[in-house]
Structure formats: C-alpha cells, structure tokens
Design a protein that fits this description.
The chain is α+β, with helices and mostly antiparallel strands.
C-alpha cells in the first residue's frame, strides 16, 4: 500500500465520527494527488514548465515538439518550433505576426461564432512575441472553448504555443494555462 494511502486510512480510522473522518480523508487525498509543475524539454531547443496534471500525448498536432493534455479536465497544450532557415518558400512567414496568423488559423477555423482578441506584444525571457485569444464554440460538438496563442521569435527560430480548454474551466485553470507560455525558455 502506498504511504499516502496508509496515512489517509490511519487518520480516517483514528477519528470517531464517520463524517469527520470522511472529510479529513478527502482533504488528505486531494493533497496527496496534487502534482507540482515540472519542466519539459523539446530536445535541445526549448523548455516549458507545465502543470503536473497534464500528460504527454502525440495526437494533438503532427508537427508539435511538445504536446500535453488532460482529457478529463479538457485542457490541452501544444508547442511548435520552426527554424527560420526552413522557411524558404514565398508563402512562408518571414515576420512574427505572419507566423502567428498562419499557425493560429487552423485552430481558429475549428470555431463557430468565434471572437478574436489580440492580447498584444509580450517579452518572454529575451524573446519578443505576440499573443492572441480566440473564443467560440467547436464545430464538432458546439462546446464553448477559449484558446490562447503565443508566438515568439529568436534569431534562428519561431515558436508557437497554443493552450485551450472549455471556457468554463478558465476560472479554475486559467492561471495555470497563462503560466505555460511565460515559462518558455530557449535552450
């Protein structure tokens, strides 16, 4: 038996009333299950700090260097990087705003009744960036969602970070989602 569970059971049985024991057991279980944020790396290119309740996946975006989700909480994140040297076609973006527009467009098209809001310029570490928020309802199931896009540029690369969740989840998880792009670190 895990030490956390043993502690919960010992505390619960030491109490006299079942109601009080259940309350304390639930509280201890919540603390025992919490997972701290941790840093994840995309090779030797960049790192992000993500909440411990997100799990790595490979199904959100075929080109994502990092992708995490918690399907039960309906929270998702992807991070894509693109070397500037690889952007040699005439239609490829050369500026940060064009990179953001192209990168975010596919996600924005998944929404009906969408509203776009430019959140403005950001500086994360030594990198300049732009942020945009998209809200609307998913075409496939009509669920109200909020997506936040962050595009960053360095001398050698562009970076795109997208986080999204159900709009009703923002009250509970919004601070966690906002912290993810702010934690960006180029390696």
């Amino acid at each position: 038996m895990k030490p956390e569970l043993r502690l919960i059971l010992e505390c619960a049985t030491a109490l006299r009333t079942p109601r009080r024991a259940a309350l304390i057991a639930l509280t201890l279980a919540l603390f025992a299950c919490s997972q701290p944020a941790h840093e994840v790396k995309a090779g030797d290119r960049f790192a992000l700090t993500i909440p411990g309740y997100l799990d790595p996946v490979e199904t959100l975006h075929s080109r994502a260097a990092l992708q995490f989700e918690n399907a039960r909480r309906e929270i998702y994140i992807i991070a894509i990087d693109q070397a500037r040297a690889e952007l040699n076609k005439p239609e490829d973006p050369k500026k940060l705003d064009a990179f953001l527009n192209i990168s975010a467009a596919a996600y924005e098209e998944l929404l009906i009744d969408r509203s776009l809001k430019d959140l403005g310029a950001v500086e994360i570490g030594s990198l300049k960036g732009l942020q945009r928020e998209a809200t609307g309802r998913l075409r496939r199931n009509n669920a109200p969602v909020t997506l936040t896009f962050t595009a960053l540029e360095s001398k050698e690369r562009f970076y795109f970070i997208a986080t999204w969740t159900l709009t009703e989840n923002l009250r509970r998880y919004g601070a966690d989602l906002a912290a993810i792009p702010k934690s960006f670190r180029e390696l």
